[in-house]
Each structure stands twice: as structure tokens, then as C-alpha cells.
Amino acid sequence: MVGGGQLARMTHEAGIPLGIRFKLLSDTPQDSAAQVVSDVVIGDYRDLETLRAFAQGCDVVTFDHEHVPAEHLRALEADGVVIRPGVEALLHAQDKGVMRERLRAAGVPCPRHRIVTDPTDVARFAEEGHGFPVVLKTVRGGYDGKGVWVVRDAADAADPFRAGVPVLAEEMVDFSRELAANVVRSPHGQAVAYPVVESIQVDGVCDTVIAPAPGLSGELSAQAQELALRIASELGVVGHLAVELFETRDGRLLVNELAMRPHNSGHWSQDGAVTSQFANHVRAVLDLPLGDPRPRATWTVMTNVLGGDFPDMYGAYLHCMARDPGLKIHMYGKDVKPGRKVGHVNTYGDDLADVRERGRHAADYLRGTITE
After folding, report:
1. Do 158 and 261 lie in a common domain?
2. Residues in a beta bridge with 151
3. What distance in Å separates the CA atoms of residue 303 and residue 359, rounded to the nearest whole number?
4. DSSP bridge pairs for 177
5. Which CATH number goes with the domain that contains 253?
6. How far apart are CA 160 and CA 169, in angstroms?
7. C-alpha–C-alpha distance, residues 185 and 280, integer Å
8. Same domain assignment for residues 288 and 158
9. What range does the domain containing 152 cover?
10. Are 318 and 329 in contact (CB under 8 A)?
């Protein structure tokens, strides 16, 4: 797996019961996955020769992020390296402009959009549609709210163009909530779909995921799952695909983003599904039969733990575990920094309000926001 973050850490964990030998390309020995994987190569994923050396002896190479240059992935494929997802699929998670055009051509519902060249062009885009505000995104490199701006006039639109990469303009969608449809697809086309979840964002960062999305009609739920499965098939995705969606106030679904790797909106499945997203990603890239994605409980809630002002969380673990033996704490081994994702908590049960409160209390206590 290329990338040493928490997704690689949890994917490695999911492969252990299957006896999978796991090799990691990590930036530093301190990265989340590098702390727990025995076979670690320290190197730069942007360097082709480093990638070539790393891939030797691997049956398959997969990723915990989408940032490996496409030209390097093509070179690896030309060398005979098996890459899953392949470069032609992964490109749609790397480049938002390419993704938007491919989905539009396939008839997938998306916000109105186009590539813009400067603030004056942003103003023209606004005039062509619903006016300001307009959402601007760098086509590459953004995550957790980074690389995304909401601009209210042309004078407010200069910052995105300073990054030196193309900028995508999108209409500001009037949505009631954000959803995510997570699916996994194998090389020979077997696919499974997890329950559609509600994803609650705070300051552009995922805060809470509720599985399944409360109050979602059976019709919209099925539509979201079918849409994600169709996208996975159309793009030739192998492995896990997360399709982030807007549920509009008039009852439509629009695709917001794609991620071709395990995803924050699927972390609930570690404890809340028969087979987690991580286990199914391992199965898919190795072309093993996929596992059951059905939920184990009526409700499962994932609450992200963000770093606060208290770097030593060990004492907080003791309190949370003693107070609520039923919760599941997953920590990533990261240095604690304010606002940084350092772990998540999964809670589950039959009473959604209780499940949410338990998760919220644990996450806030671990962060130090509350002390009792």
C-alpha cells in the first residue's frame, strides 16, 4: 500500500486475519501505518524509481491516498505491476475536472460546473447560472475542506488561482444534508453496497457519520446505492469507492466527490458491519470473494476525534472505556495537534439519540473539550 496514514494502518489490520503479507511505502517511520507494519519502505511516492523498487515482489499495489502522479502509475502498469484501482479509474479521484466531465457524459447528476481561468471568468460563471455565491475548488490536492473556497463576488475569488493548478467552479447547492454511498468492486465485477450514511461536516471536516442515514426513503437509498455501483462499473474501479452526495431540499441526489480508497464515511463499518470497508478493500484488490456489508446493529455512529490542547490522551481512554464499555475507540498513533484527525469512536445500538450522545461524549472527552 502506498501511503502511511491511518487508512493504511486500518487496512493492514483487516488483512492480518487472512494472513496477508503487507508492505508499506511511507513518508516517515512515524506515520500512522509505519508504526505497526513490519515491512516498511521509507520514500517519496512522487519519485518513480522509488515506486518501482517498492513494487518489486508485490502481487498488487493499492493506495491510502490519490496523490501518486498518474504518469508514474502508467509507467508501473507498463512494467507489469498490478495496480488497483488502475490509473484510468484513479484519475477521476485525482482530478475533479476530469471527474466532473466523465460523470456528466455518463448522465450522472452533478452540480453545474466548469473550469474557470481567473476571477473575471468566475463572475461570468455566476452570471450564467444562479449567481453568487460560487464554490471554487482546485482540481487536485484538496481534502478535509482544503482547496475549497466559497466566494461571494469576483473580488473574493483571487486566492484559488494562486495555487497554480486549474480551478473548478461549481454552483452553490441548496442541500438539506450530505450523504455517502460506499461500495466495493472486485476485478471480475462482483460488487457490494453498504447502507447509505449521513455525513455531518464541521468547518469542512467530517465530524459524525450515521449509519444508516436517518429518515432516508427507501427509494432515495436505493438510488444512491445504484448510482455508486454504476459509477464504480463505468470507471472500472477495483476496491473501495466512496461517493459523496448532496441530498437537495427538493429531494434529488447530486454527486459531490469521489474517493477510491477506504473513506472516513465508512469507518463505522469496522464495528457496525459484518465485513468492514477495510476488509472488503483487501478482498477486492486481491480478487477474493467479497464479504457481507450488512449492518450488525440498528444504528452505528462514527464520531471523529480531533486533536485539542491535551496531547496525552491515555488518561482519557481510561475514563471513556470505564464509563461506556460498549464503545469502540480507534486511535491512529498520531501526534496530537489542534484540529487534526487522531482517531474515531464507534457506538451502536437501537436508540439513535443515545448512540449519538455516547459517541459525542467520548470524542469530546478524548479531545479535552469536556472533563466529566
Report:
1. no
2. 134
3. 6
4. 247
5. 3.30.470.20
6. 10
7. 9
8. no
9. 112-171
10. no
Cα–Cα distances in angstroms (integers) from residue 337 to residues 125, 308, 334, 341, in the given order:
38, 6, 9, 8
Mean pLDDT of 95-118: 95
85: which 3 cell numbers?
Answer: 484501482
| Cis previous bond, 133, omega within 30 | yes
Cβ-proximal residues to 72 (8 Å cutoff; 6+ apart), any chain: 46, 48, 51
Query: Is 106 inside a domain boundary?
Result: no
Q: What is the pLDDT of residue 326?
A: 95
3-state DSSP helix/strand/coil % of the chain, to nearest 5: 35, 25, 40
C-alpha 37/C-alpha 125 separation (Å) is: 48
Residue pLDDT, tens place only, 35-83? 999 999 999 999 999 999 999 999 999 999 999 999 999 999 999 999 9
Q: Output the nine-digit C-alpha cell for 368.
A: 479535552
190 and 165 assigned to the same domain? no
pLDDT tens per residue across span 125-147: 999 988 999 999 999 876 656 78
Distance of alpha carbon 311 from alpha carbon 331, whole angstroms: 13
- The secondary structure of residue 156, as a DSSP letter, is G
- Do 290 and 315 fall into the same domain? yes
Place of cell 482530478: 95
